[in-house]
Amino acid sequence: MPSTFSLSRLASLAALGTCAFAAQAQQAVLFGIVDVNARSVKNGSASNYRTLSSDGINTSRIGVRGNEDLGDGQKAGFWLEAAVLPDVGGANATKFWNRRATVSLSDPNLGELRAGRDTVTTFNALGTYDPFGTNGLGEVIGNGNGVGILSLLGSGAATLTRADNQVSYFTPATLGGVYGQLSVAPGEGTPGNKLYAGRLGYAKGPLNVSVAYVQTTVVLSDKYKQLVVGGSYDFGAVRPMAQWVQSKYASAAGGNRRQNVIEVGAVVPIGAHHEFHAGYVRGDMSGGALGSGYADADDARQYALSYLYKFSKTTAIYATAARLENKGASRLALAAGAAGFRPGEKSTGYEAGIKSAF
Questions:
Q1: Are 224 and 248 in contact (CB under 8 A)?
Q2: Are 340 and 34 in contact (CB under 8 A)?
Q3: What is the DSSP string of 181-204?
Q4: Which residue ranges form the domains of the chain, and what is each CATH number?
Q5: pLDDT of 296-352, one tens digit each?
Q6: Number of C-alpha atoms within 13 angstroms, CB side, residue 272?
Q7: Terminus-to-terminus CA distance in the chain, angstroms?
Q8: CA angle 317, 264, 143 (to 5 degrees)
Q9: In the chain, is it the N or the C terminus that has fewer CB atoms within a 10 Å radius of its CB?
Q10: How many CB atoms lie within 10 A of CB 344?
Q11: How far apart are CA 239 and CA 82, in angstroms?
């Protein structure tokens, strides 16, 4: 009996030791954000479109991420992140881990190699220099297909924000402020998914500047190309930012469409709790057929202002007002919904909400 007890106890202690070693070697964290708002949008001649929506200041999400210490500063990591729709209790209809699903290896002197579904270089840049962080009624990017000013030009490219089957290399944080990323996605036979991308920037102290590029093969030789050049400077009392985005799409059916977008904005913190976000976006089309929405006269302007009150580092309330003005045959909107919106009309919207992170 004593012998049996000793062996059992020894086995238990060994198991606990193994668990303790695993806990030290690998760390996993559950995280997320819930962001819900009440929104009202008036798209020209259409009726007011009132909704309980999400993602007004941050994208609602849930995820788990972790890393394992391999020694000498080297790490193996994973990241799984899904968008959630708190207003209806749903998730992305086509991809559960739609925001990110990656595995990685990193070395402090060599950089990081990452593989899986992930954000693309131009989207990373757009979020850095957009005062609304690519969220809510004031954002620059929208969905590329009539919501928001930035356009996919009818290309059908699926890489405006993220890419499937992407392999990326990130430079180490030992280059004196210089940072970079190179990415490739083979497409695997899916139109609009094949991608080559890169970003090179400099971030040190209050300054952050970069240039990013993505080329997406849509069908055969048809390619959607996007270039983003931006910068920001944090003065403490105000953080101004600006970016220029050029998108091109050449095809036999659509001609040589082009859009130039300029965004200028600022984030103004006041004390520990208050924050204002302001932005102006100008989008100029060219190259498309008359009346297509992609012609020289089919331009748009957007103005937005947001106020954020932070209760803590994780909880805040906010309110945003925005106005998008179309010209020519342009029919871009701040948010989708309500039939009857006509080319050349204005889209005006308001939203107020709360977000909580964990």
A1: yes
A2: no
A3: EEEEE--TT-TT-EEEEEEEEEEE
A4: 108-357 (2.40.160.10)
A5: 999 999 999 999 999 999 999 999 999 999 999 999 999 988 788 999 999 999 999
A6: 5
A7: 49
A8: 65
A9: N
A10: 15
A11: 30
